[in-house]
Input
Amino acid sequence: MTHKHEHNIHRHNSIEYAIDPSGPGSRCLQNLDIPATSPTSVTSLESISRFYGFLGTEKGDRSDVEIHGCFALRLALFLIETISGTTVTLTRTGAFGRNFYRHCIESAAAAELAEEIGDPELLVIYIKQCLHILKASGIVKQTGSRATVDGTAASHRALYFRLFNAFWNLCSWEDIFPSDAPSARALGESKNILKDLLVRHEGAVRLDNVANEFFDMTGFCNKNDLFMISFLDFYFFTWLNHFGMIRYSAGHETAPVHVTVTGAGKKILKSL
Output
């Protein structure tokens, strides 16, 4: 199955995300009171330390370009600027309204985001997913009936890490990957297995081959399940691509999808 066909299967799942002030998004990563005895917390903190060490030694090389220029960071900066620069009134349920998304689509051309995606429907989905990540990171909050920006990172590199940590460790994947909530929940629980299968490959690898390895190892579904391969592509692999950790290989539209782990992606993913 080609990347274009896979995206078309899931693109209709464009839902509004509420900002729940009682959820994880109300807490800033820097202010979390993390129990030192929690194995998960220790692992997370060790990953944070390794990640910052990596960023501090990679200045000026290709990894820096992959991080600084990635779509996830640029989209987040665009949304932070949009929310900071105007009054964004939320719905009664704490969700962003249609006028906000309409304004984002109209403004995305100037930020060179619209042309990059080339599809307003897909861009709206990515905006909604990114807003959820920003909420989980504690950067976007609800203050009264308004969306506000709080505690943005001091540098683009720090913001990049804060976003990825929110995506990988803090977000509920059934919320950001909503087309199949049970599968999204199961993927969130076994994402490290899929990550390990991906990073062990050198150079370009067929996405469906990695997916089938994952299915076979975990029992996630039957091998060659095209719908679930599409699910992994549209959500898991697409967001690794947004974060500059993988890149899709350019090829004929009908050719099987190939992905390559970038230099930055390999170092970051191996540190998790």
Q: What stands out?
A: The longest strand covers residues 140-143. The chain has two domains: 3-11+177-271, 24-173. The chain is about 60% helix and 5% strand. The two ends are 30 Å apart (CA to CA).
